[in-house]
Amino acid sequence: MIKRLYAFQDLGRALRDIKALSAIAAKQIQIENRRNFLGLAWLVISFAVPTTGIGWLLAELQGLPLNQHIPHVAFGFVAWNFVSACITEGCHIFYRNRSMLLQAPLPRSGFVISLVFKKLFLLAFQLATACMIAATFGWRPNIFMLFVPVSILIYFFTAVGAVLVVSIISARIRDFSEIAASVIRLSFFFTPIIWSTSSRSMAQSSALDIVARLNPLTYYVNLLRDPAQGHFPDALTFGITIGIATFLICSGLLLLQKNGKKIVFYI
Amino acid sequence: MVKKSIVLDDSDNYPRIIAKNLEVTYPLGSFSAVKRNRTGFKALDGINFELKAGRRLGLLGRNGSGKSTLLRTLAGVFPPSGGTLDIKGEIASIFNATSGFLPNATGRENIVLRGYMLGLDYDEIKELIPGIVEFSELGDWIDQPIYQYSSGMTLRLAFSITTALRSDILLMDEWLGAGDAEFLAKAQKRMDEMVENAQIIVLASHNMPLLSRVCDTCLVLSDSKVIFSGNTKEAIKLYRGVRDGA
Question: CB 3.0–4.6 Å: which of A22, A235, B132, B200 could bond B169 by disulfide?
Fold first, then answer.
């Protein structure tokens, strides 16, 4: 019965060729950086420079020690860049691949998984860069980093669900991508990426603390940042992130079942 | 040449295309309007035909009459909104040879990307690459980014990729031709081979001598409906009459 549903057939066809999807994702990163003088080095530079600069600035403004705050910001940015890129680029995934979708009945979820792979490869680049930045400020690898692959696995499932949802809604309602971009821009400031809930100014503002606790993105950032900084993510972080991932995957499949075939008419 | 996996049908009707009262409606207007009034543009309305092995069907009609929509519906790109469509057989579709090329990617990389677009898996694409490189005559250029190619070289690559597949059912939106006089002759031969090897062909074109040469029957479409179905010669005569009378 389940196998007959369009959404599962689509997902099954995409997963059957997962090797090609990951190869395409890697190739796209390489191709996008090909004509630059520094090539793939830009992936490191474009992450390292703003991260270190903003980390230093916010540490000074909040009166925090550099050796704690710069690693906090660097690992926070790794998580945030993945989340924001998946949502903002996910909104345009079907428009960008219009010519391919009009050529053959390709599985819609293949485009989604390929985008998530691409962002995961970039996350790996940025995580390595964040480790190097943090190491120059005294950070050292720890045993809890063995948990990072589990965090990445939860990221993968959440991102597949989230991109499915936003891509299908954006294909149908064009304004949605603008709304999503605005929400993501605003969320950056309400998520503890460049600030910390334990900082001096935060201790005085219980309202911000509540916002951070109610913001689901906080838990996604903590899921990667906590093990990188030598803590095990708490049960609440696990519960919320796995719960959201399940909800998004189910919602994505539901939307795919209802609108997947008709996407070609909307783009 | 690679042949995609085929589910063998042991009946005599393999391959086949049977369309009964086929309808395709494009949703138009705002989200709420479509939901409320079920508004939309009927791009295909009550299309009926049956094709078995050995048939070559031509599609004639003015721009916007529904030829490309019909081809894309047969290819599985557009879902029918009404009627039934029964297709058995492996389909290869040629709609837009050069679309989807990435200028920063090399010719070889574009073969991989295009192969995926045509529904091949990674191993099948790898198997196809030597033949495509040889037929396109690009030599060492195949490992250069295609923004460095001349338009003729790009077309040669697109043609070689698109025609590297064999299938039971071939769907074409206009005939392909590419390159200089020498390559054009080679391309013509390859197209004739494709037509020869495919068991069912559906070709949409405004090139009437070509339709006469390739197709044994034709559908003439007008305003999303079939206004004539039958012999190619008579179809061309009718289409000319409709076109010139308009």
Answer: B200
CB pairs under 8 A between A and B: 70
* Helix runs in chain B, H state only: 31-37, 67-74, 107-117, 122-136, 151-162, 181-197, 208-214, 232-245
| Contacts B4 to A, Cβ<8 Å | none
The confidence score (pLDDT) of residue A250 equals 97
Domain B16-90+203-245 classified CATH 3.30.450.20? no
Residues of B in contact with A265 (CB under 8 A): 26-27, 78
Residue A245, amino acid? A
Identity of the residue in A24, A104, A261 whose CB atom sits nearest the CB atom of B75: A104
Q: Do A265 and B27 touch (CB under 8 A)?
A: yes
Inter-chain CB proximity B104 and A105 less than 8 Å: no
CA–CA separation, A216 vs A208, rounded Å? Answer: 14
Alpha-carbon radius of gyration of chain B = 19
CB under 8 Å to B59, separation ≥6 — which residues? B67, B70, B71, B202, B203, B204, B205, B218, B219, B221
Cβ atoms of A40 and A33 within 8 Å: the answer is yes
Which residues of B touch chain A, with CB atoms under 8 Å apart?
26-27, 31, 72, 75-79, 93, 95-96, 99-100, 102, 104-105, 109, 112-113, 116-119, 121-122, 125, 145
Task: Please give the torsion angle defined by the CA atoms of residues B66, B69, B74 and B80, in that order, rounded to the nearest 10 degrees.
Answer: -100
The reported pLDDT for the residue numbered B7 is 40
DSSP B147: G
Give A13 to chain B, closest Cα distance, Å.
Answer: 10
Q: Which residue has the tokens 């950070």?
A: A139
Cβ contact, residue pair B76, A104, below 8 Å: yes
Flag whether residue A175 sits within 8 Å of chain B, measured between CB atoms.
no
Give the ipTM: 0.81
The amino acid present at A253, given as its one-letter code, is L
Measured in whole angstroms, how far is the alpha carbon of residue B148 from the centre of its chain?
28
At B37 the pLDDT is 55
* SS3 assignment, position B166: coil
Q: Are the Cβ atoms of A105 and B75 closer than 8 angstroms?
A: yes
Can you read off the two tokens belonging to residue B123? Answer: 């191993």
Describe chain A by its helix, strand, coil percentages, rounded to 5: 80, 0, 20
Distance, CA of B90 to CA of B109 (rounded, Å): 25
Low-confidence stretches of chain B (pLDDT < 50) are: 1-10
Question: CA angle at residue A116 from A100 to A218, to 5 degrees?
Answer: 145
Q: What is the pLDDT of residues A39-96, one digit of tens each?
A: 778 888 999 999 999 999 999 988 889 998 999 999 999 999 999 999 999 999 999 8
